[in-house]
Design a protein that fits this description.
single chain; 466 residues; alpha/beta; 6-stranded parallel β-sheet; two-stranded antiparallel ribbon
Amino acid sequence: LNATRSSIVPARSFTSSTGKDTICELAASNIRYGPGATSEVGDDLREMGARSVVVFTDPNVAKLPCMTVLMDSLSRNNLDVHVYDEVRVEPSDVSFRHAIDYMSRLHESVGLDGVVALGGGSTIDTAKAANLYTCHPPSSGDFYQYVNPVVGKGDPVPGPLLDLIAIPTTAGTGSETTGVAIFDDIPSRSKTGIAHRRLKPTIGIVDPDNTATLPMEVAKYSGLDVLCHAIESYTALPYTERPKPQSPLHRPAYQGSNPISDVWSLHALRTAAKYLPRAVNDPDDEEARSNMLLAAASAGVGFGNAGVHLCHGMSYPVASQVKSYVPPGYEGADHALIPHGHSVIVNAPAVFRFTGRAAPERHLECARILAAARNDTGELTRSTTARGVVGSSMSRVSEDAGQYLADEILHVMDALNVPVGLRALGYDEDDLESLAEGTMPQHRVTKLSPRPVGKKEQCHSIESPN
C-alpha cells in the first residue's frame, strides 16, 4: 500500500448517543518558537507584572548554558529570582511534596507572582504541582485532593494559578502545552497525576538552542514519547463515546479523539517520523532538533485535549516498579529508572495489535506515515519475528491494521537500537501480574482505549518479557 501521499483519513461521524458528550474543546498554552526565545522570558514576566519569581530546574540543567541565558534575561528585567534546582527526574509524590513545601514557604515570605520551569517534563510537571498547591492548598491538607482517581479524589482546580512559563530542554513530553502533571505514587506503586486545564503554562518557550546539548539517549526516548503521544491520541476512543459532563468545568482535559486534536496529532507524527532518527544520530542537526521540539509541542496540543490510552497507562507501572535498571546514557542517575519514552514504547506493539480492530483506518493511517518516513515507497510490511521483518503485500486490511502498525513501530525501535521486551528492563513472567495490577488505577487513560480493556486483557497485552 503506497503511503507517499499520506493524509488524514475521513473524519469519523462523531455522532453521539444518548447521555454522551457532543462537544469538544481546545485548551493549550501560548507557544513561542525560535532559537534564542529563552532570552525574552524576563520581558514576558515584566509585562505580566511579576516582581518576584521562582525558577524550577534540575541539578544537571542548572549547569547548562540555557540556565545562564534565562538568569541573564531575568536579571536584565530587575526581577527578584529564587531557584529550586532539586527536581527529581521521574518525580514522585515525595519529590512533589518537597517542591510544594519549598514554593509555599517562599510564597509566604516574599509573595511570589511568577513561576518559570526550565527542563524536561519532570521539571515542568513539578512546577505545575508546586504552583497548584501553593495557590490552592487543600483545606484538609490532603495531598491527594487534586490527584486523579482512583489514587486520589480528582477535585477540579478551584481557581487561577500564578503565571507559569515553561521552557522545555527535551523534545518529548509536550508538557509546555498541557494541563497535566505526572508523578510516581510510591504508596500505590503506580504512576498517576493531576489533570486540569488551569495547570497549563501561560507560555511555552520552544527554543531549539536548549536541546543543543541533549544526550543521544535522552533525545531517543523523549522522541519515542512524542511518537506514542501522537498515535495514542489519534487512535483513542472518540469524544462522542465519553459521558456528557455535568458542566463545562467537569469536562476532562482528556476528551477522547476529536477533529481538533486529530490535526495536531497527525502533524506531530509525520514530523517525528521524519526527524527523530536524524535528531538522535546527529546532535548538530539543528533542523532535526528544531522540528522535534515542534513535534513535541504539536503532540502536546493533540494529546493534551484528546488523551492517551494503553501505552501510557501500562507504562506507569513499568516505570514505577523498576528494580535496578539504569539505561545507557543515564549512568549519573542516583536511582534506578526506565526513561518514560522507553516505558511507553516497550508495550506499544502489543497494545496496537490489540486495539487495531477497533479503529482500523486510523491504525493504518499511522502505519502509513511511519512507513513513508522509512522507505521511498511507503509500502507496509509484516514481520515474522520481533526483529526480522519480511516484506509482503498488505491484505485483509481491517483485520491486520494493528499488526501493521505494530510492525512499523518495531522498525523504528530497531533503527534506534531500542531494547525490545520487558526482560531487557529487568522484568520476567513473575512480574506480569504486578504490572497489570499497577495499570488498573490508570483508568483516566485506559478508559480511552478504543477497545474495552480489563485486567485479563492487560495481562495479554503486556509485551512478552522475552
